[in-house]
UniProtKB/TrEMBL annotation:
UniProt catalytic activity: riboflavin + ATP = FMN + ADP + H(+); FMN + ATP + H(+) = FAD + diphosphate
The name this protein goes by in its record: Riboflavin biosynthesis protein
Function: Catalyzes the phosphorylation of riboflavin to FMN followed by the adenylation of FMN to FAD.
Top EC category: transferase
Functional pathway: Cofactor biosynthesis; FAD biosynthesis; FAD from FMN: step 1/1; Cofactor biosynthesis; FMN biosynthesis; FMN from riboflavin (ATP route): step 1/1
Domain Riboflavin kinase: 183-312
Biological classification of the source: Bacteria, Pseudomonadati, Pseudomonadota, Alphaproteobacteria, Geminicoccales
Length: 328
């Protein structure tokens, strides 16, 4: 997949595609339906499949203090889209010039003059142009006038829940990882840099990697204990390991700052300074206070056993890149 973030010299193969339009935070099952619709048009027309997304998220420009935490980093969005067969990813810079552009100007200057698109697909509630004044009905009209096909894609429901980035954020914050992952169509994933912590886990016999988030604000799910897959970016490549994760304030030790800590189930490694991805596979339990350390250690042993069982039963991961998986 080719990624385009600069447009002064856009290559010819980035033009003439069938494009899925949207922000695609999470690349959830509703987004996948839009990309699939664009893919069908691409095959019919014999042109590349592309995605036009906005970077940063429009709300991060319009109201940064109220912007939602991201479900996916840009890098993970890229990996997920690549697995869906996207050939061209257009990351359009969302700035004050773009947000002041009239819908007609967006269609003419971006979709036609810059990208020469053959077809476009978007969710039925997609809006574009100044103050979100353009809708799918207007895009269809502009497409007929300017020579590209337009398909409006209805939302996708799963067990009576309409897939949306907003709903998935709420589910994750409520601790409902199973429903969130089902609507995402992949396991929720975050990550960061491994930094030094209190070494408390090592003292208890369960050493943990403390993860410090990097980049733009990304979401963390509800506090608790999770079965995870941990992707370590070693100098010679990415390796994935089975693990168990503690997310919370460590009430047994009177902690007050929220930490993401991962115990790799088999093996001990020097991970400081390395990047680690954390894929949340199953929620095992909520965060608890333990009156004595022995009770905590016994529960940690049960957590590890439960994590192994959950990971063994879990399907293969999506969006994990090309790294090898080393099971626990």
């Amino acid at each position: 997949m080719q990624i385009h973030r600069r447009f002064a010299a856009l290559p010819g193969n980035a033009r003439g595609a069938s494009l899925a339009l949207g922000n695609f935070d999470g690349v959830h099952i509703g987004h996948r339906a839009v990309i699939a619709a664009a893919g069908e048009a691409a095959r019919r027309l014999g042109v590349p499949l592309g995605v036009l997304t906005f970077e940063p998220h429009p709300r991060e420009v319009l109201a940064p203090e109220r912007a939602p935490a991201r479900l996916t980093t840009f890098a993970r969005k890229v990996r997920l889209m690549e697995e869906l067969g996207v050939e061209q990813l257009i990351a359009l810079p969302f700035d004050h010039r773009l947000m002041s552009q009239a819908p007609e100007a967006f269609a003419k200057e971006i979709l036609v003059d810059l990208l020469s698109i053959r077809a476009a697909a978007a969710g039925h509630d997609f809006c574009f142009g100044h103050r979100r004044s353009g809708d799918m009905a207007q895009l269809s009209t502009l497409g007929r006038q300017m020579g590209f096909a337009v398909q409006s894609v209805h939302g996708v429901e799963l067990d009576g829940q309409l897939a949306s980035s907003t709903l998935i954020r709420k589910l994750l914050l409520a601790g409902n990882l199973a429903d969130a992952n089902a609507l995402l169509g992949a396991n929720f994933c975050t990550g960061g840099i491994v930094v030094h912590g209190d070494a408390r886990g090592r003292e208890l016999g369960y050493p943990t990697a403390n993860i410090q988030a990097v980049g733009r604000k990304t979401l963390l799910p509800a506090n608790g204990i999770y079965a995870v897959r941990a992707g370590v970016q070693w100098p010679d490549g990415l390796l994935w390991y089975d693990g168990v994760c503690s997310l919370g304030t460590r009430p047994t030790f009177d902690g007050n700052d929220r930490r993401l800590e991962v115990n790799i189930l088999d093996g001990r490694y020097d991970l400081y300074g390395l990047r680690m991805k954390v894929e949340f596979v199953a929620r095992l339990r909520g965060e608890e206070y333990f009156a004595d350390i022995d009770a905590l250690i016994q529960q940690m042993a049960r957590d590890c056993a439960n994590a192994r069982a959950a990971l063994c039963a879990a399907p293969p991961s999506l969006g994990t890149g090309k790294g090898r998986i080393i099971a626990g």
